[in-house]
Every structure is written in structure tokens, then in C-alpha cells.
Amino acid sequence: MSRSDRSPSRQPAPDAQAHTPVSPRWVHVALLAIALIGWMTFILACVEGPAWSPDSSRVLFGYYDSGAHRYKVALYDLSKHKTRIIFERLTTEDDDDDNLGLSTAWQNDGDRALILTTEGSSESNKHCVLLSLPVTSKGIPRTYDLANAKDCWFRQMLLQQGDKIYLSGDDGFNWVNLATGESGSSEIKGGPGFLHERNGHVAYIRAASRPIAGAKEKDAEEDGLEFGQIDLTGSALKPAFTIWQTQFSDIKIGDSISTAWEPGGPRVALLGIGEKSDRILIFDENKGPIGAITPQFGAQPARIANIIWSRDGQTLYAAAITAGAKEKTCDFSLAEIPVSGAPGRLTKIASFTCKDPSDNDTSGKLDMILPLALSPDGNWIAATPSNCGAESFAPTDRALFLIDLRHQPYRITRVPFPAAPKSSSSPARIAQ
Amino acid sequence: MNLLRILFSFVCGQQHCWVLGGQQLPLCQRCTGLYVGTTIALALILLFRPRPAASLYWLHGLFMLFMLPFGFHFVSHGALMRTFTGALFAIGLVYYLALNPLTVLHAWKPATRSAILYYLALTINFVAILLWSLRHGGSAAAIVLSCLAFIGLVALTLLTAANLIFLPVTLRALRAPSAPALR
To answer: 24-83 in B: which are within 8 Å (CB) of A?
Structure first.
């Protein structure tokens, strides 16, 4: 720095001194403090990071708005009868038409919605993120990157323990610390199979095989399913029992499309695809197989999926499709299946266009497009054809359906998918 | 780029990153504005060294305040706005951090109206070039911007260090019974 540069500051001209506003050093110190606090806040803010609310008063549900080419998540408040969109993202060419590109859950405090969705539009920048959006408080949205997760397909939020949330992954499970933003993944040797939350733990069901004793072919093996629990601290498996194909000759257990653990109980229900009809196998984790149910709904053949237990453990509910009254239509119903084996009952929810209910293409998608969720108090079931576009369901049938289980016959409340807000600033968005 | 990714992971969540020509920047969109903006702002401040005045305090404070509604998501905004608000924040931040060191070094130049106008015009131009390159740039732009962001991070660290080094001088001047008026 040249001397001539310095001199004006050291020896200001009397005129300039008289007319320039005085700037005491404490202003600079104060501004320095503001700047440092601002920068630190900036860094800290940057590094932070259909589901029933814990009190059964609100439902989060995701759906595909085919007209707008967006996946959306809406929140319905049962007491106020109001719905609002809290999140949306544009679909991309990579998104699968048959699978909703996001899943939802509530944070344990009931104040925040958790949304698992894929961010980015190209292979190079695509990755799975967990969003935490405030829905009752005035907090700020948070985004958590999932470790080693290229996309979110078939990932589900399993359970939250303290600040940690566990999610199913490709080769094991992922976890995210909602307080610190840390994330990680644990690999499970041989694959995790299907993971479920079960009484505050993570249960798994995965494929198994063993040689067939006395078989003609030397390498002949039979398929089976291993049930157990995962130790989340060390990712070790604690097998409970294994079932084998030879035990259940009438169904192909490897093709099971739905399983459900009894809330608070030792039983697990497994829906098996049979040649003539579907069967639900009931197992006790301590005793092994304890029963089998062939769902009967009168003369009407039905395909079912997404089984869930009632709170008292006496009934299984499932999404069902049957042939509709008109040609090339199907009915989407709630199936009520008594565990005792008594005849079940169907409660029609909506109609949609389909070739044939027994058609593999239709039944294969059942578990993906017609999810059910039981409210924590056991009084309601939320059902929605979430992934179907306007081409399958009539506009009036594209909705969230709330089935009140306290009344016979069941009362169904239809909550239409909300219209897009006039102000585009309302829902949270992911930039693609 | 991997080294930069590790380095920036200490100060940035690295989510919502720009991808230019298939090359993902090692920092988020807002931090891109902050750290590249820091390099721009520091270069311009060292070039013009506009003597502190009330109008400049307010102007740079306003740049920083602009971050509040966007940073806390009170206003919905997109990727370019994230970077823009980050860059504005950087201009205010660098100016405030430069106040004490440049005062102690007696390095200010007279803040003439034309000098301030040049300073502001160049600032706006460089921020516009930054936003344009993010929109239309390729992998080369990604490398250049990553390097500028790295320089910005180092510059902010050095400016903070300089403030700590000069703090005793500043405090001594504050305690002095006849603290000299600054301009």
C-alpha cells in the first residue's frame, strides 16, 4: 500500500473532517459482532439439517396429481374438516408411474411431518432426502440427506427412537439423527428383506432356502421365509422362526405381497398368493404357524393386499378389488377379515377402470396404489388410491377416504384431493 | 473436487447443490452465493476501499438483512434466489468484517460518489455474471466457481483472523480517553 494511500486517513483535510460524519470505533466493533453472528447463523442454518398423527386428529397423505405432473402431500384435520397441501414436487422421467415417489410419517412430537422423497432430476444429482416440515409450529423446514441412498424407491420410515429415525434400505437400513443431521447406513449380510416397525423394534422377513432332504436332484432346494428382529445398534439379526414351502403346498409363500405384525402382540399375518384364492397365514413368533384363513366374501372373488391388524387383534383389514358393476371397471373396497375364520365383509370405497381384478397387472399393483393406515386410537382407517391418475379413478373417487370403524355399517368420509393453492408459495417444494 | 466437498461439509449442509455440466458443486446453492460472493466482494472492497460512512453501513446491513426472510423460509423462493441472497449477504458480511482491519491499517480511500457508484455497479455486474454462469455454465464453470468459493472461504477465515489480531488495537483505541474519530 503506497504512502499516498494512507495519508488521507491519517491526516484528513480540515474541510473533510468537518463535513464527514463521525464513525466511532464501537460502531465497527458492533458491526463486526453482527457480521460474525450472521455468518455463524448462516453456517448453522445450512448444516442443520397417509400417516396418522400420534393423537389420531390429523392425517398426512401423499398422492399423484397427474394433471399437474406432481407428487403432493396434503394434511387433513379431522376436527376442522380442512385439507391443505404441505409439499409438492414435480415428477421426472425417472419416476415410476406405479409407485408414489414419496412416503410420509409423523415425527414423534406430532408437530412435524416427515416426507421421504427423491431430490434431483438426473442420474448424477439424484439422491434420497428426508424432509421435516413444521405443520403446527412455526419452525423451519429441514432437509436431511440419506447416506448411500441414490433414490427412495421402496424405502419406508420404520420407527423413531429419540432423535434417530430408522428407514428401510437396499442392503440393510438407514438412520438419520433429526437433531444433528447425521445419517448413516448399516448393511445386513444376505439382505434385509421386508422391514416393519414392531413394538418399538424393527422386524424383518426375508427369503431363506435349504436343501431338500432325499430329493432326486442333488442341488434341489426349497424356499422359505425367515422372521426375526434386527439389533439396530449392531445390525445383527435375531431370527425367531422360519417357514418352508413344503409346509404350505397350496400357496407360493415366496410371492407374498403383504405382511403385518400384530400391534403389541406376538402374531404376524402373511398374505400368500394362492392358485385358486389368496390365503392369510398366521404365525406366532414363539410357536410358529398357528392358523390359516381363506378370506371369504360371499360369491364375489376378490384380490386383497395391504393387510393390517385391528387394535384388538380380532380382525384383519385389507384393501380389496372386485369386479365392478360395469364392464372394465373394478371396485376398491375395505375387506374386513375375522381372524377366527368367520366370513368376511367388503365395504365399497370407490370404482376405477381396470381390465379384470384377477389380472396380474392389476393385482400386482394393489399394495402400491391402495395403501391403508389404521389410526393410533384404532377408530379410523385411512385409505387412498394415492398413485392413480385421473385416467383410472373418476375425479370424485380420487380422494382420501376415512372409514369410521366405530359405526356399523362403517361410515365413509370422502376428503377430495385439495385443489392447488392460489398462492404458489404455500407448499414446500423441492427444486428439480 | 472431493477435497473441496469434504472441506465444505464442515460449513455447509451440501443439499440443494448446483449441477453444472454434470459436475455437482461441493456446496449448496445459498453457500455458493455466500462464498463466491465473498471473493467478489473482497476483491471490490480491496480495489475501491470506500471510506466508511453511514450510508454504506446501512446499505451493507440491508444486504445482510435481505437474507432473513429467505434464509428462514418465510418467503418461497427458488435456486437462483438462494444464490442471489447468499451473494448479497456476502457483500454485507465482507464489508463489515473489513471495517476494523482496514481502519487499523489506515487503508481507506475517499468515498467519492463516483467511486461508490463504480463499486456498486461492479458488484451488481459480478453477481449477475455469477447467476448467469450458474444457469448456463458447464463443467468448467463448476470448477471455476468451486475454486472461487474455496478462495471465499479462506478469505472469510483470514478476515476473521485479522479482526481477532487487530481487536486489541481496536479495544485500546476504544478505552483511550480521546478516541480518534474515524472516517
So the answer is: 24, 28, 30-31, 34, 51-54, 57, 61, 64, 67, 71-73, 75-76, 78-79
